[in-house]
């Protein structure tokens, strides 16, 4: 399988990422290839997730665009595949929590919607709490966004473009969706969810 991750062309030159796993060090890294030549390397890191979470900073230092949510997921898969252990890769991906998938989808949708906004444009976007999906529309107000949803209470609403203190990442999307789910459930006490508390075991006599 070709692990090369194509980022398109920059200044007319092909720009690609190549995930690498070094078995001798049990470490992951990311090679940047420009115009057919290795120009930089990011890593090594002990975990594939470390590479994905820091890839945008690495690319930004080189003047290259950030990855979308879908590209981050794809990069993670390719890093795991680089180990050569396909069974391990399949197990990790199969064990991915639905909440993580929802956060990655929400992140990807934010990226696409933000990229489609003209300068000075903005509005409210509705995201379904259950899976992080959206109807793809940017509404002029929260009221308009809620009115357009079949089940307004099943959605959470954010403003785009994000402000300087609201820089969205996959982790922040997960945190936001989790908080929204608890708010909808009605289990928040002083801002802390309590529904996860398991009942005390019954004493055995």
Give a quick rundown of the structure.
Helix content is 37%, strand content 24%. With 205 residues, it is α+β, with helices and mostly antiparallel strands. It is globular.
Description:
There is one protein chain. Strand 3 and strand 4 form a beta hairpin. The strands form 3 sheets. The protein has a 4-stranded antiparallel sheet. Strands 5-6 form a two-stranded antiparallel sheet. It is 37% helix and 24% strand. The protein has helices at 48-61, 69-81, 86-94, 98-115, 142-147, 170-185, and strands at residues 5-10, 13-22, 27-34, 37-45, 123-128, 155-160, 188-189, 192-193. It has 6 helices and 8 strands. The model is unreliable at 197-205 (pLDDT under 50). Helix 1 (48-61) crosses helix 2, helix 2 (69-81) crosses helix 4 and helix 4 packs across helix 6 (170-185). It has 205 residues and is an alpha+beta fold.
Furnish the topology, listing elements before pairings.
Layout: E1 5-10, E2 13-22, E3 27-34, E4 37-45, H1 48-61, H2 69-81, H3 86-94, H4 98-115, E5 123-128, H5 142-147, E6 155-160, H6 170-185, E7 188-189, E8 192-193
Antiparallel strand pairs: 1-2, 2-3, 3-4, 5-6, 7-8
Helix pairs in contact: 1-2, 2-4, 4-6
Question: What are its keywords?
Answer:
205 residues; alpha+beta; two-stranded antiparallel sheet; 24% strand; disordered C terminus
**Cα-based radius of gyration, to the nearest Å:** 20 Å
The DSSP helix count reads 6
Strand content: 15-25%
Mean pLDDT: 80
Category by helix and strand content = alpha+beta
In this structure, how is the largest beta sheet organized? 4 strands, antiparallel
Query: Termini separation (Å)?
Result: 60 Å
Order of helices and strands: EEEEHHHHEHEHEE
The count of β-strands is 8
**Unreliable parts:** 197-205
How would you write the strand order of the largest sheet? Answer: 1-2-3-4
Describe the global form: globular
Summarize the amount of helix as a percent range.
25-40%
């Amino acid at each position: 399988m070709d692990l090369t991750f194509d980022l398109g062309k920059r200044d007319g030159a092909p720009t690609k990422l190549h995930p690498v796993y070094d078995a001798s060090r049990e470490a992951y890294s990311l090679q940047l290839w420009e115009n057919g030549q290795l120009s930089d390397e990011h890593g090594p890191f002990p975990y594939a997730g470390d590479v994905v979470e820091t890839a945008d900073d690495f690319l930004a230092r080189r003047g290259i665009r950030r990855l979308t949510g879908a590209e981050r997921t794809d990069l993670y898969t390719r890093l795991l595949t680089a180990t050569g252990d396909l069974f391990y890769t399949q197990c990790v991906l199969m064990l991915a929590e639905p909440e993580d998938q929802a956060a990655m989808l929400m992140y990807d949708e934010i990226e696409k919607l933000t990229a489609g906004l003209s300068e000075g444009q903005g509005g409210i976007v509705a995201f379904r709490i259950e899976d992080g999906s959206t109807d793809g529309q940017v509404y002029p107000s929260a009221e308009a966004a809620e009115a357009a949803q079949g089940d307004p209470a099943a959605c959470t609403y954010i403003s785009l473009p994000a402000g300087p203190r609201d820089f969205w990442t996959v982790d922040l999307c997960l945190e936001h969706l989790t908080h929204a789910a608890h708010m909808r459930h009605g289990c928040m006490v002083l801002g802390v969810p309590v529904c996860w508390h398991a009942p005390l075991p019954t004493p055995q006599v």
